[in-house]
Amino acid sequence: MHISLFTTILVSTILAGVVSFPTLSANEVSNVGTVEMEVLELPEGFDLSHPALNIQHQIDLLKSNAKIALPQLPEGLPIKKVLLPASAAAAPTEYHCASKHQAFVWNAQSVAAGLKALSNQWCCQINLNKQCTPMYQIGNAAAAICCPPKRCVKCSYVGTTLEKLVNLCKKGNLVAGQVV
After folding, report:
1. Is 121:70 a contact under the CB 8 Å cutoff?
2. Secondary structure, 3-state, 67-100
3. pLDDT digits (tens, 9 = 90+) for 13-52
4. How many Cβ atoms from other residues are within 10 Å of residue 47's Cβ?
5. Which parts of the chain are beta strand (E)?
6. Backbone torsions φ then ψ of 50, nearest 5 degrees
7. What is the average per-residue pLDDT within 78-98?
8. Which domain range does residue 62 map to?
9. What DSSP character marks residue 12?
């Protein structure tokens, strides 16, 4: 099975990107260092208005009170374990820097930090009519997850990916780019 996850920075408009996660054969697993990553696929009929799927609200809750219990998805949802080559888990395939639709570096860094602070919360694509769901925005920088609807990854992964993109693509006080 081939699973694709899109991690995108939104800066005024969408700059789409993709991170692909191939599954490995038994021979490849024995020859390559691997890392296991969890991918959640929300079941048919799942309530997409569940409070645990509102990432902007969860980050706002954390900012207001770091000790507050965040909304959680119900137990028993189908979480798949995907084996990734260690190099793919550490760094998605490609980072592409852009010169249009740039955000301020400090806004993009704050978006990345907010997502990383959610740690084990799920960032999900819940927009059934579009390819992407915005996760979190500060000023002119935002992060979104783009993939088939109802697919999720840990928010810390999205934040870490965005953080790496900012570090690689910043030019002075501005940054724009995509992960492919």
Report:
1. yes
2. CCCCCCCCCCCCEEEEEEEHHHHHCCCCEEECCC
3. 222 233 333 333 343 344 445 667 788 999 999 999 999 9
4. 9
5. 3-11, 13-15, 19-21, 34-41, 79-85, 95-97, 103-104, 122-124, 132-138, 141-146, 151-154, 174-175, 177-179
6. -55, 135
7. 68
8. 3-179
9. S
How many domains does the chain contain in total? 1
C-alpha separations of 5 from 20, 71, 153 in Å? 6, 24, 8
Instruction: Centre a 10 Å sphere on the Cβ of residue 74 and count the other Cβ atoms it contains.
Output: 9
- CA angle centred on 94, ends 145 and 156, rounded to 5°: 40
Q: Which amino acid is at 22?
A: P
10 vs 137: CA distance, rounded Å? 8
User: How is residue 55 written in tokens?
Assistant: 């990432």
